[in-house]
Known about the structure:
The protein is an all-alpha fold and about 210 residues long. It has two domains: about 1-55, Arc Repressor Mutant, subunit A, CATH 1.10.10.60; about 55-200, Tetracycline Repressor, domain 2. The chain is about 75% helix and about 0% strand. It has nine helices and no strands. The longest helix is centred in the middle third of the chain and has 31 residues, at about 120-150. The protein is elongated and about 65 Å long. The termini are far apart. The mean pLDDT is about 90.
Amino acid sequence: MVRKTKEEAEQTRNAILGAALDVFCTKGYARTTFDDIAAKINLTKGAVYWHFKNKPDLLIEVIKQNFYDNHCKIKEFADNVKSLEDLCEVQVKIAKMVVDDANYRRFLFFARFHMEWSEGIVKTVGNAVREIRDIPLKELKELLTSFQKSGEIRPDLDVDDLALILMSLWQGILSEVLSNDSELVRFPAMVRKSFGLMIKSIKNVR
């Protein structure tokens, strides 16, 4: 057997991850087998096992790869947020990403609606992805804390509660859009309006 180069092995690994998400979205996680994933990209089941020892490990890497790839894109325009208005614009840009990027939208749909989050899977996968799951909320809390210290946010508000409310607002609109294609085109405008109202209610009037 010809030994693969590191680059070829990485390409194969990425192809497996892409195929896994495709099949997960089509058949669901529980019904997907390594044979299904291998057949999708003309590999043997053994080739899939060479890269991933079991299906939960593969699921963890699918989640991590898609999260970090999209988080890096978001960070490109989120790192310069200086005000609540900037934060609103970032949420609008993320909404536009969801509208424009079918792969990102497919991953979000799978994670929210097509993944069978049984108690066993949560126990197996949960610890491995907990850190990345908490990153957006952690970053939002840090921003809101800085805005409150600078006097932009009312001092009587609890930042932890506020971050959770804003995150829940985003996730609620996202879930509605992902489950109803006819609402997709309105997503950025819906985010701008809802976050604009929230910002108006929490902004410190000096």
